[in-house]
Specification:
This protein has 291 residues and is of the alpha/beta class. The chain has a single domain, classed as Carbamate kinase (3-Layer(aba) Sandwich), CATH 3.40.1160. It contains nine helices and 14 strands. Helix 3 packs across helix 4 and helix 6 runs parallel beside helix 8.
Length: 291
Amino acid sequence: MSLEITNAQRAEVLTQALPYIQKYNGKVVVVKYGGNAMINEELKQQVMEDIVLLSLIGVKVILVHGGGPEISEMLKKIGKESVFVDGLRVTDKETADVVQMVLAGKINKSLVNLLQIKGGKAMGLSGMDGHMIEATVKDERLGYVGEIVKVNIEPLTDLLEKNYIPVVSTVGCDMEGNVYNINADTAAAYLAGALGAYRLISMTDINGILRDKNDPTSLISSIDLKEAQQLFEEGIISGGMIPKVECCIDAIHRGVEKVFIMDGRVPHSLLIETLTDEGAGTMVMKERKIK
């Protein structure tokens, strides 16, 4: 059913968004777009529309993307099994080549293309360009899975200055020319910290942090670092949520004021989070201000 809204209602919506537009104008916002949240084509179109809209109202958006499901699919096509240790993909030389091809090639360029179709100015980069993400071996068991040792944000600041939306695939490198598969949440946290980003928004395929993982209504709308530690100890933050929340905490330690984990499957969740007082997931902050 299509919902008809009047011009007066449209105007009302825009005026309500005004304080948020003013708050975000000129600020750097890093959006991490996860592999599983990217699967639905219609939702992907909406996310790109939201990013273009934010860019057009003066928000300096950087899109950092993963692509795990597509990497697994490509490996399957060449008859290679995906192996994971502690949630990280074991990456031999051949897998590293596939990661580079899928992330820096196919996914990166298709997102750039989509943003441009929607009216945005976008430029695709990998962590190898301008030595943006320098890495070393994280764990010998994992092969070419990288631990970030240094980031160079100059390519990003240059593009933001020219009003481009940088689209970053998380492939890193070292001084010897080795290519590394980098966790996208980790890369987003490092880049957001180095850029002094106003916000880091992690779009994923879950509602946020749930008090009961089987009950979507048990969403925790905001936590500070102390409360996060408590949730870890109680086992409420568990499984695949552990690295996501750890990356949020890492970003806050690196100077990002607020980090959001939200459900990329909700239509226009990015706009709901940034331009309304409703919010669309879990907000992580350094400490609660006691009123």
